[in-house]
Specification:
Elements: H1 2-8, H2 11-26, E1 74-91, E2 94-114, E3 117-129, H3 134-143, H4 149-153, E4 160-165, E5 168-172, E6 178-192, E7 200-209, E8 224-235, E9 238-248, E10 263-273, E11 278-287, H5 297-300, E12 303-313, E13 318-327, E14 338-347
Antiparallel strand pairs: 1-2, 1-14, 2-3, 2-4, 3-6, 4-5, 6-7, 7-8, 8-9, 9-10, 10-11, 11-12, 12-13, 13-14
Amino acid sequence: MLEKWLYSMSPSYRLICLVGLLSLLHGDIAFCDDLREIQWIGLGPIPVVNQSPIQLLFLQPIPDRAEVLPGGRKALGLNTAVTNTLVSKSSGNYSGIVDMEMVRTELDFRAGIHPRLELGISLAVAYSYGGVMDRSIRDVEDFFGDPRKARIEEDPGGYEYQVKKGGETFIGGRKRSSGIGNLAFRIKGKIGEESTYSPCLSARLALKLPIGHDDRALGTGKPDLGIGVLLQKEIKGLNVYLNADLIFPGDAFDQVGVSVHQFYSFVVGGEYTLTPQFSVVPQFRYTSRPFRNTGLDMLDRRIYDFMLGVNYRTNRGIFIQVGGVEDFHDSCDAGADITFYLNIGRYF
């Protein structure tokens, strides 16, 4: 399955990922030599945004800790997520189907420029195709005795990505499409230090530049702006995190009479340290949607998802995060079915 997936990717996507990985692991950078020197870092929340293909069109601030990198410190991460999505519905003037698998890699760079100020930049590349997980997901749903109608009727390995109003497509992707996604800039400032009774408090501002091709459904073609508040508190070996963000999307679909509105993202999670090298992170996220009153769950319905990950870091500043993301409650017809992620990076 892995070999089939690797060879299914476009050469340009493989090249971008390879260059990023080589830069990450073999850059001529002097890294920390002693694990004790990087105890201040703490890997923090799972840095994976909601992987629903429609939600990825818009700005989504990366889950983050409230602490900032000290002045002069930097971090570079390469996050790859593999996601399977199947949602389908028609309602009144709207109809849509998203049946695909997506491999999305995000290169993220952060730098501490002041004891209370951190800058970040991230760039994503994505590749969507028919997928290899359809049959396995159907088998799991059969095992639990409640397969969705869309899964029963699905052609495994098929690809379709069309959202229409009045028969006109306003969101759609080409079969086996690949390309660069959106470019995002972030600035995070620490407002209050963590103390015995109060958490660390920071605020952040994020801006999405619309360089992703909207004709390939890799972006909206409009800039988005986000503001957020971050909290962090250590409680007997457990670091608790809270992110609350408000996003103002650009008017991307006015030409077809579809408006978008501000939406919210709330993340709460905890990182429990097992050893100086290993920690586990359970994390919950609530995501509201930028669309209103279309009658399609894939556009209107908020999404709940649960993430579980394992963090590992070496004594030379390298870190690895691996885990999965699953929607729950009544989000199965609103977003992605399942996501697996791998994040590799280094502090320096």
